[in-house]
Aminopeptidase (Faecalibacterium langellae), 413 residues
Amino acid sequence: MENFDELLKKYADFIVRVGVNPQPGQTLIINCPLEGAPLARLCVRSAYEVGARDVQVNWSDDAVARARMELGSEEALTDHKPWQLRRYLDYAESEGGVCVLHLIADDPELYAGIDGNKISRVNAARRAFMEEWQEYTMNDRVQWSIAALPSMPWAKKVFPELDADAAMEALWKLIFDVCRVTGGDPVNEWQAHMERLSTLRDKMNALDLESVHFKSSNGTDLTVGLADQAVWESAASKSEKGVVFLPNIPTEEVFTAPHKDRVEGIVYGTKPYVFNGQLIKNFRVTFEKGRVVDYHAEQGQVLLGRLLDGDEGSRSIGEVALVPASSPINRSGKLFYSTLFDENAACHIAFGASYPGTTKGGTALTKEELLTRGMNQSRLHEDVMIGAEDSHITGKCRDGRTVELFRDGVWVL
């Protein structure tokens, strides 16, 4: 690819400086697959240039991960040691603090053919073990960001008509395009984009909505009641120390917290979803009083059931997000088979936990206080795409007005 090294450097600088935004004296932890080494090295340098105290890189490898899941005993795979949690908490509790960057290279079918029950139990055990650290990220107590790079299996899934090298190049180009790197100045472009999303966020908050209603020709007819004192948020987040960061790269959403008991109707998935390294396609779910009471998927029916039965809160939703069909990810015409991208091509809901920051003053509330407001509690947070090209979305205000939000899949607010 022409100018690849220059584009990769710009991508790395943007990921670090706008995405995770390490502050002077902070430690940055980077989690990265082996094939991401060139990008990780640039991120390390960029972090030091902005004043990071230290940068630690944790390497991973999909081939090893699959071999462990396939051949390792469940007892060994769930035998977590204290240092695996403390390596985050020790830095988080230190004077300089910590921020975390996840560089991911998705293989949408990494665990295809492996016992799904085993995968679910192993992943559930890890979520339970890491719950104390999850409290930091869910409450934005630290900066964190997720960004992607191609892997060969992922590139071939997105571009099956190309040979391996051409598919990798095509996926790199696509990532640079939808992440606004190709244009030449991603830092300034993203700052302008975040301002646009913030304007939409402010308009949504000014409406004082009690519910939103989704309807589309595929059969979706869903009313999502909002949590008490729900707050709409957009791309950028702010840590408890006031540091602005961008959790997801890319991002196109304006989102808030549903009330866990006030979701009614039926909704159809509009894009495949990857869960536990396996695909769920063409699904529908029916809600009554906030909980899924019926579900079906043309592919991954059993897998969808495992997701919904993950814990007490996984049959309710913790997020509802509005994303226009005009987003760069959707306009690309490509299905990414990656939630990081596909959730920013379509409106979505998330089974599982609410983000405390999506209710007023929520990051300072206890779990019991959050539950009182209708905020869902779970160890899961799994986004699934429900937006269609003809989605019609309205909002019901607390003063009784009905306001049109989306027509034919795009904002009209």
Remarks:
- The chain has two domains: 4-184, 199-235+246-411.
- The domain at 4-184 is CATH 3.40.1830.10 (Thermophilic metalloprotease-like).
- DSSP finds 14 helices and 19 strands in the chain.
- The radius of gyration is 20 Å.
